[in-house]
Specification:
Blueprint lengths: L2 H12 L4 H13 L3 E6 L2 E13 L4 H6 L2 E7 L2 E7 L18 E5 L1 E3 L5 E3 L1 E2 L7 E14 L11 E10 L4 E13 L1
Parallel strand pairs: 2-11
Antiparallel strand pairs: 1-2, 1-11, 2-3, 3-4, 4-5, 4-8, 5-9, 6-7, 8-9, 9-10, 10-11
Length: about 180
């Protein structure tokens, strides 16, 4: 009977190690995809993203009536926006709730203790420019691991940004979605 547990341990080790190791590997693989890929002046521009932080409300009744703020951070990019109550991933991090939903991007907004945030982007060879508005449209969710360190829950979709210089740029996105609250 003692040999059965050893066989199981061997099988688990052969299948990729501990959950933490599996999550870490999944995180590294997913992280390579996290970016905005935008069409700018006829060229494709890739802006790496680090995370999409979603602030949840503890008061469930309040949350049913008010959009939850989100923030996206990346290399030369900071966005603030809102998630409609019917798309909220909730505390069980159902990022798939964002699929098929349009999430408005705002020029400014408050995000918890960080105060007022201005949406802005720095395009290659250009100075930082403000974002007037925009949208994210979730198309699919991948990954299964939650958390800011080893998580890999990724929202993929389309992005549209109206810049303060009058241009509108569009493209695709993939970003690690994390809930806080």
């Amino acid at each position: 009977m003692r040999s059965i547990p050893l066989v199981l341990v061997g099988l688990l080790a052969a299948c990729g190690g501990s959950e933490e190791q599996q999550a870490s590997q999944a995180h590294a693989t997913a992280k390579a995809t996290w970016a905005f890929v935008l069409k700018v002046d006829g060229a494709e521009v890739r802006i790496p993203l680090s995370e999409m932080n979603i602030l949840l409300f503890k008061d469930e009744d309040y949350a049913k009536e008010h959009p939850a703020p989100f923030q996206i951070k990346g290399e030369g990019l900071l966005l603030i926006g809102e998630i409609p109550p019917d798309a909220s991933p909730g505390y069980d991090e159902k990022i798939e709730n964002l699929v098929g939903k349009t999430l408005p991007i705002k020029s400014t907004g408050d995000f918890h203790h960080e105060g007022t945030i201005e949406s802005k982007i720095t395009l290659p060879g250009k100075p930082e420019i403000g974002i007037l508005s925009g949208t994210l449209v979730g198309e699919k969710k991948t990954g299964k691991w939650s958390g800011s360190v080893n998580g890999d829950k990724t929202l993929h979709g389309k992005v549209r940004l109206a810049l303060k210089d009058g241009r509108t740029i569009e493209g695709t996105f993939s970003v690690h979605a994390i809930t806080w609250g």
